[in-house]
Specification:
Helices cover 18% and strands 39% of the residues. It is α+β, with helices and mostly antiparallel strands. It has two domains: 30 residues; 118 residues, SoxY domain (Immunoglobulin-like, Sandwich), CATH 2.60.40. Strands 1, 3, 5, 6, 8 and 9 form a six-stranded mixed sheet that branches. It starts with a helix and ends with a strand.
């Protein structure tokens, strides 16, 4: 009988905290840039993210991903860079229903950032990586062949 009362008490306390917003405070969630994730072509997504700032190609951004993927729903990608003072790394696909795949923010104080994640690709295309570092925008891209699209 005691354990049943304890269970009911803990469930009701959890529900009250959830309803009051104390269990998962809204301020803990990241801001969702819905407009940026609505573009289906990379040029519009890049313009929304960075405006008319000049983006220069560089080999200081290294992209590691397989040359081909059987399933576009789970494509591993690793980004390494020697650039200093990194503020963000953005991943963009040329031929996806949603061009912006992800954007990661950094403190801007370090160097030699490393990022590993998985992305979803609809078709074979270039994956563009744009790094904001030290007030400049740098990019590199790599082509991947996708056999079965992951955005179906």
């Amino acid at each position: 009988m005691n354990t049943r009362r304890q269970f009911i008490r803990s469930v009701s306390t959890s529900l009250a905290l959830l309803k009051a917003g104390l269990l998962f405070p809204i301020s803990a969630f990241a801001k969702w840039p819905a407009s940026t994730f609505s573009y289906d072509n990379p040029e519009d997504a890049i313009r929304d993210l960075f405006g008319d700032r000049k983006i220069r190609p560089t080999d200081k951004i290294r992209i590691e991903m397989p040359p081909g993927a059987e399933n576009g729903a789970i494509v591993p990608i690793t980004v390494k860079t020697d650039l200093k003072n990194i503020q963000s790394i953005s991943l963009i696909a040329e031929k996806n229903p949603v061009a912006l795949l992800a954007q990661f923010s950094f403190s801007g104080k370090g160097s030699g950032e490393y990022l590993r994640t998985r992305i979803k690709l609809a078709k074979s295309s270039h994956v563009i990586v744009i790094v904001a570092a030290g007030g400049q925008l740098c990019s590199n891209k790599k082509y991947i062949e996708v056999l079965k699209g992951g955005c179906d």
